[in-house]
Write a structure and sequence with these properties.
The protein is of the alpha/beta class. The chain has helices at about 5-10, 20-30, 30-35, 40-45, 50-60, 65-75, 90, 125-140, 155-165, 185-195, 210-220, 235-245, 265-270, 280-285; strands spanning about 80, 100-105, 115-120, 145, 170, 195-200, 225-230, 250-255, 275, 290, 295, 305-310, 325, 335, 340-345. The strands form 4 sheets. Strands 1-2-6-5-4-3-7-8-9 form a 9-stranded mixed sheet, sandwiched between helices. Strands 10-11 form a two-stranded antiparallel sheet. Helix 8 (about 125-140) packs parallel to helix 9 (about 155-165) and helix 11 packs across helix 12 (about 235-245).
Length: about 350
């Protein structure tokens, strides 16, 4: 019998089939195998465009799926789908979670307690100290560190977490068989032994520039809070912060010098509603976790919250206003999707 995940991987190879279209296929055919065996007409009736059906037929009639599956098996790559109990719960809660995640290493239930640490590749001595202190504190308190394996802040966060005996997850903008940058291959091996390397791109996918912004939604989606250590005005870390807000997750930013290019993005985030980060306790308090002798405590006293997101407003002509740069009547910057939190009760 063919592994059902084989067909999930097949659709993952088809350009244009993401979370929304894959849900349409499951609703129309019941499961991925039946959708894979469907006729072109049936696929179009299910909601796929002519272009996507043509892309599907190219994959379906080639040996790419078979070759990819052999690579998955030979390299010991895990395939996690929405149907798998091991699929990360926090990630599954976002609006469009990836239907397939590829993993090298192990995703643990403990990883539900995770913080994303992201920032510039051009890290300063100040940013390095902050990233090391925070990632080390998270590791000592049993909090998984999520980042992107990039140069700069990402690498420092992974390394500090590992040095302090913690777990860390790295989300790639390539297949899990393509480690980028190449000088982080040894770091990637350490992460696999103490966490996981993850991607929603199939094995064999090179690290193309267009892949990295979409993967940032996975970094924030795996974490309960995202902290931006340093970021310029056009840093990809700001994309991660935007995704975190849209996913209803807490966003922190490290304040920096007003003349420092590496802090322009983080200072702007704070102006627009991100919480300023001053010490690891800020993060732990947001997760309702007490620092106690290097052990995670406080789960029994978690507070349940309801999150409400205000609709993204439009200007006088009806055009959507840009993210993170709205003006209220007092001409103050406010985030369009400001979160309102209502405390409900203490849960066990």
């Amino acid at each position: 019998m063919t592994d059902p995940r084989y067909y999930w991987v097949g659709f993952n190879l088809v350009k244009g089939v993401g979370a929304a279209r894959f849900r349409l296929l499951l609703e129309a055919f019941g499961d991925a195998e039946q959708a894979w065996q469907a006729s072109p007409n049936a696929l179009r009736e299910a909601g796929l465009s002519k272009r996507i059906v043509e892309a599907f037929l190219r994959i379906h009639t080639s040996d790419l799926l078979e070759r990819t599956w052999r690579q998955i098996e030979s390299q010991g790559i895990q395939v996690l789908t929405w149907e798998d109990a091991s699929y990360p719960r926090l990630l599954k809660e976002i609006e469009q979670p990836p239907p397939v995640l590829y993993a090298r290493g192990e995703v643990s239930e403990d990883d539900e307690w995770a913080v994303a640490i992201v920032g510039t590749r051009r890290i300063t001595a100040y940013g390095r100290q902050v990233a090391e202190d925070l990632a080390g504190a998270m590791a000592r308190n049993g909090i998984t560190v999520v980042s992107g394996l990039a140069r700069g802040v990402d690498a420092v966060a992974h390394q500090a977490c590992l040095k302090n005996g913690g777990r860390t997850l790295a989300v790639l903008g390539s297949g899990v068989d393509h480690i980028y940058p190449p000088e982080h291959r040894r770091l990637a091996q350490e992460i696999v032994a103490n966490g996981a390397i993850l991607s929603d791109y199939p094995p064999g996918t090179p690290p193309e520039a267009a892949n990295f912004p979409p993967r940032n939604r996975i970094i924030s989606g795996l974490a309960r809070a995202t902290l931006v250590v340093e970021a310029g005005k056009s840093s990809g870390a700001l994309i991660t912060a935007t995704f975190a807000v849209e996913q209803g997750r807490e966003v922190f930013a490290v304040p920096g010098g007003i003349y420092s290019p590496a802090s322009q993005g983080t200072n702007q985030l704070i102006q627009q509603g991100a919480r300023p980060y001053l010490a690891p306790q800020d993060i732990l308090e947001s997760l309702n976790i007490a620092m106690a002798g290097g052990k995670r405590t406080g789960r029994a006293g978690l507070t349940a919250w309801l999150f409400f997101t205000t609709p993204r407003p439009r200007d006088q002509r009806g055009a959507l206003l840009p993210r993170f740069c709205l003006k209220n009547k007092k001409n103050l910057n406010i985030p369009y999707n400001r979160l309102l939190r209502i405390r409900l009760s203490t849960v066990q």
